[in-house]
Amino acid sequence: MTVEFDAADLVPAWWKYQRLARGGRSERKALELGEPADAVAASEAIYELVDQGGQEALALVAALVDGAESDDDLGRVGAGPLEDLLVRHGASLVDEVDDLARETRASPRP
Question: In tens digits, what is the pLDDT along the chain, a chain of 110 residues?
Fold first, then answer.
């Protein structure tokens, strides 16, 4: 089953997947069975976009960082989509990553 997303839905659905993946056995089992479909599809879509690389993937990873609610959440992005993006496409995105880091440092999180 394919679930379509617009940008506003993709990031919250990915975080939903992450919360369920850290949940109890029944939540993790449901994910293995493809439920809830929106969260599973979001996780797959994020990694497909990261595999493709480019500006869209970097913007998406930045949106995941913005959606993080804790240091643990930031670690999930850093050890997941961000790491994968940098390993696969870091050389082609180095200037954009640097610019984004400077912008973020200039306007820290509340």
Answer: 344 446 688 999 999 999 999 999 999 999 999 999 999 999 999 999 999 999 989 999 999 999 999 999 999 999 999 999 999 999 999 999 888 888 876 555 55
Domain positions in the chain: 7-106
Residue 108 burial by CB count (10 A; 0-12/13-18/19+): exposed, middle or buried? exposed
